[in-house]
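Run log, item B.
One chain of 371 residues. Sequence copied directly from the ordering sheet:
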Amino acid sequence: MTNQQKKITKTKISILVSIALSLSIIILILYFTIDAETIQYLSQTSFRYEFFLFFGLAILFNIFYWIIWGARLKVLSKAIDSTVKVSLWEATKIVIANQFLAGITPSVAGGEPVRIYLLNKDGLSPGGATATVLGERLIDAIFILVLVPFGFFVFKDRIDVKLISYGLTIGIIVFITGILLFALALKYPKKTKGLLLRISERLSRLSKKKERSSKIVNRIGHEIDNFHDSMVLFLTKGKKSFLAAGGLTVLMWSTGFMIPSMILLGLGLPPYFVESYAAQALLLIIVMLPTTPGSSGVTELGMAALYGVLLGASHQYLLGVFVLLFRFITYHMNMICGAIFQYRIFKSFTSFSLDTIGKKEGTLSRQGRQV
């Protein structure tokens, strides 16, 4: 079996594992929450006009989420290189196409190389494309960091599930560590790079695959250089664009956070607008942890735990249905649309290799400073 065939097989396995995990956990939640009362309630509400109205609105909010994300990508790419014109539709297509690989990789990290590749294809230099995506990453991190205290304030007396509490604690520690590394990389790029390279080199000695370990060490060096150059650019020449992208980020996530409330309204339940916003903020911390492909299973369990608290014992019989509808819109719909757009661009679901992007990114150390 050639390396290319191994990569295709690995991608296929990731697709199967992510979908199987998501469906199996949903089925498990449905098994423990559905009863005769659920069937009776759904038979009375599922064919009502309100159900289709709010379910349709939830789908529209997900589509608006893509469009606003595309607008943010357009703003940041223009700040990097004003001569490259990335239209809103082109940026939105990039966002949709990235959903497929994001859905089958831990921490949804697979989508970032796709965005870099497609932005480069649209005219941005490899360094400029990376700077744009790194700008997105930093703005999201700032938004989440600001929102976490609000989430804890709302749920401080409600989270009794130890697994979720542990997950949130670990997530916040990892997240804050990442923010600190970002800050250090910005202020002390050479020292931070040296520290991380030393750690990576020592860890690589424990690995049997020396060639792969060497690539990882080199990748870390490139990432730190790219991050520093990108952030200096945004914080000097591109301040207005960075602030505009920040406003779009708030709007983007707030739009996505409306989806659970629309589903709740469709099921004839209170929308819990504030509590739901806080729950989504806390869920983001768990989802960003590198656990399962696309955080499948983890997200479903997190949703069940957080919204189980909101719904209370009186509406637990609808919890499984709620999680099913939510994941259909925010995960399975994203995967389906992402697969369609990826196939249209790359003519394949599985043969798209991240090494293709890696080759382009290999020139970043030379081109990144020209952005």
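Observations after the first pass:
- DSSP finds 15 helices and no strands in the chain.
- Confidence is low (pLDDT under 50) at residues 353-371.
Flagged for discussion on Thursday.
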